[in-house]
Structure of PilT protein domain protein:
Amino acid sequence: MTNIVLDASLAAKWYLRDESDAQTADAIFYDYENDYVQIYFPPLAIYELGNILFTANLRKRITKPDGEKSFKNFIQHPFEYKIPPYANALQLSYRLNITFYDAAYIVLADELKCSFYTGDEKLYKKVKKDFDFIYYLEQYSPRYPSDLK
C-alpha cells in the first residue's frame, strides 16, 4: 500500500461534482477503498473542507443538506490524521509565501516521505520546483481497472 497526503481542495472534488478533475479525485478514493493507497491528512483538513462546503453553499454550488451529508461522509471515513510539525510549516510559509494551511500538507508529506497531491493548481505551480514529491491531481496514476473509468 502506498501512503499519500491529500489536501482539502482535492477532497472537496469528491463532493462538488462541478469541480474539474472530479473523476481523477474519484479514482484516488477508489484506490483508497480498495487498499491501494492510505490517505493522510493533517487535522486542519476537516476545518478546511467544512469551509469549502460552506462557501460552496453560499455560491449555490451545493445545498445545505448535501453539504452536511458530504461533511458527515468525509469525517466518517477512517482516514489517517497526523499532526504535522507545525513550526516547520510556519517556516515554510514564510520561505515560500504560501498559507500556513498549504505548508502543513507539504511538511506532513515530507515527514511521512510520501507524495502530496493537491487539487489547487496555483499552489502546485508555485511550489513544484521546490519539492519532488508534490503533484497536481491530474498527475495521479489510478490503480483501478480501466473498465471502471
The chain is about 50% helix and 15% strand. The first helix runs from residue 8 to 11. The radius of gyration is 15 Å. The helical segments are 8-11, 22-33, 44-58, 64-76, 86-96, 100-112, 121-127.
